[in-house]
Design goal:
Mean pLDDT: 83
Strand order of the largest sheet: 2-3-1-4-5
Protein name: NAD dependent epimerase/dehydratase
Shape: elongated
Distance between the termini: 101 Å
Helix content: 55-70%
CATH topology: Rossmann fold
Pfam families: Sulfotransfer_4 (PF17784)
Order of helices and strands: EHEHHHEHEHHHHEHHH
Radius of gyration: 28 Å
CATH architecture: 3-Layer(aba) Sandwich
Largest sheet: 5 strands, parallel
Low-confidence stretches: none
Organism: Clavelina lepadiformis (Light-bulb sea squirt)
Length: about 270
């Protein structure tokens, strides 16, 4: 582990991830932690963890960004004391809160909701993310088909204040960079002691665009869409089979009732005139 990015979500974590990848680092963001370290993080959140747990989890990773890694920056640093720490921050708390609100609104996407219901993989990922968000912010993102998503911004703001204060007070000053992504390559590369890449500095997840990007190109979303098609096909087959059985049952019942009625009428006629 070379770099621990301690900035909370919506402080430029996706942009920083892209920048570190451009430099050549293997970066675990929120999604990678979910896909590859799901069980380990679940244990840490529900039962607790040790320094050895974090060392084992990130021994082959160069950098970690976003939740849950940023929230457990201190524990990860104990496992990798030589790692540098980057605290990404917005201009002020209100700017961060507006960005968080935009992310919440973007997440309330009907296509995402349908994928959650019909993709086992994405359903499991969502359950894990809900646990992580609750552990970090003390509240849960509530999405809805029929109204706006909700998120307790009071608790989120309090987490933002406490978290930043904790990093500023306790991170080793000689290993800490307080960074705003608006500053671009120069301070980041100087801190990491690497050459400035020849490409423009990345800009990711503007106004919650990460959800749109996820649906278009992320391997997890592609897998989820395939699972959704399988689920829809199975549901259609089950519905067709059920409809067929019902129609057969109804037809048989109608035939039986009609036959019985005819036979009853014939028997009455026969008994009356014979």
């Amino acid at each position: 582990m070379k770099v621990i990015c301690a900035g909370l979500s919506k402080t430029g974590t996706k942009t920083l991830q892209a920048a570190l990848k451009e430099i050549g680092y293997n970066v675990y963001d929120h999604l990678e932690n979910c896909l590859y370290l799901n069980k380990e993080w679940t244990k840490i959140i529900t039962e607790g963890g040790t320094t050895e747990d974090f060392r084992r989890m990130f021994e082959n990773v160069d950098a970690v960004t976003d939740i849950p890694g940023c929230y457990f920056w201190d524990e990860i640093h104990k496992a990798f004391p030589e790692a540098k720490i980057i605290l990404t921050m917005r201009d002020d708390e209100d700017t961060w809160a507006r960005s968080m609100y935009n992310q919440v609104a973007a997440a309330n996407n009907p296509q995402i909701q349908i994928l959650y219901m019909l993709s086992p993989t994405l359903k499991q990922a969502r359950a894990w993310s809900d646990k992580v968000v609750m552990a970090v912010f003390g509240t849960k993102l509530k999405e809805s088909f029929f109204g706006p998503a909700t998120f307790n911004m009071l608790l989120a703001r309090m987490t933002y204040r406490r978290h930043n204060a904790h990093v500023l007070q306790n991170a080793p000053k000689d290993k800490l960079l307080i960074y705003n992504i608006k500053e671009g390559w120069e301070p980041l590369c100087k801190f990491l002691e690497v050459d400035v890449p020849s490409v423009p500095f990345p800009c990711k997840n503007v106004r919650g665009k990460v959800v749109e990007d996820f649906l278009k190109e992320d391997p997890l979303a592609i897998r989820a869409k395939k699972e959704m098609l399988v689920s829809i096909t199975l549901l259609a087959l089950l519905f067709s089979f059920g409809a067929y059985k019902f129609s057969r049952s109804w037809s048989s019942k109608w035939f039986f009732n009609t036959s019985s009625s005819v036979w009853h009428s014939f028997s009455s006629f026969r008994n009356k005139f014979c």
